[in-house]
Amino acid sequence: MKAVFDQNFVKRINGPNIKAGGSKMDHAEMVMDDIRQFQKRTGVARTTMIWCGSTEVYHEAAAVHATLKDFECGLQKNDPEISPSQIYAYAALKSGVAYANGAPHLTTDMPALMELARNMNLPICGKDFKSGQTFMKTLIAPGLKSRMLGLNGWFSTNILGNRDGEVLDEPGSFRSKEVTKSSALEHILQGDLYPDLYKEFYHKVRIEYYPPRGDAKEGWDNIDIFGWLGYPMQIKINFLCRDSILAAPLVLDLVLFMDLAQRAGMRGIQEWLSFYFKGPMHAPEIYPEHDIFIQLMKLKNTSAVDAW
Amino acid sequence: MPSKDNVQIAPAEGKLGVLIPGMGAVTTTFIAGLEAIQAGLGKPIGSLTQLGTVRLGKRTEGRSPAIKDFVPLAKMSDIEVGCWDIFEDNAYEAAAKAGVLGDRAARSGEGSRCRRSSR
Description:
The complex is a heterodimer of chains A (308) and B (119). By secondary structure, chain A is α/β, with parallel strands linked by helices.
């Protein structure tokens, strides 16, 4: 199907198969029409949507994202703060379709679309699949913390050469990624609770686009830790992974769980699906859970309670 | 938070539509995997819903059913995929360009599911 595309939000790629002309509201209506056609053609009983496209440039919620009314007005007026992913999510939710965000950019994590999800009694979740380096990070950090070992610094760098890498080579898109990749350690290590161990560690995250590797990305982590009496030690992780081989099963699990959530009448942010995300969406009054073992426990508890 | 007293779950009857903006490496690897797994060419490694278990009761009770048997999830075989993308390639062409999968696995994405969800 022809895509909604806006070069202002994804600068490094461009393609011919896009919806032409009209306002952003027209595009949203075209997506809603695509959804109806798909449902008719395939005879599906239920539908869920999951973003697996490129990372859009970093931007924060603006006035147009404050309420559903503002947002709909912005769609009609072609507000430049409304991105293609937000148009898809709006069209999905208006069509009774749950929405999961596999990328780090701003989509349903804003008041207007949360309001729409609540009104439509639909689940939403996100954001940014936790597939590679951050997956490793959220495995290792809880272990260090469980033994009360300190952290001086964590340097993470990646090389990858797929379309994701190409898009992330642009600073605006990288900024979206940097934000979701950076927050995990602080939340897991809780420097306020453990000032002797985690008050001041240096965390740096880099992504380098390197075409020869394609999808076979490589992550390096250098972790500077300290133990008894402050003696320093180092851990090096070299993860030779395959980005999409790690991400595909997350897509499968998420669509099945989002369908379950929808059938169970669970609306709004699905925090129990934090397990799958680098930047888990969460209620404003609580912090996101990044520790993968706690995330797994929440996931199993919720799905098992559902099943009773 | 749901509790066992207040959750009513509609059964997973009929097919489940999965709509995906962006048909690049991740999407085509997902689609080809659905077909390959059903054709017996591979296993759903990395999927908690397909391979995970959930322990019920105390450890001494020895009850650990598979999540997919215990939780009323849709079946992989009931999934129908539709995609939007800025390029006009079909799922196989997109998978070939993404270069994640070998030709045999990528071609499994040419099956009926993807023809029906042609763009």
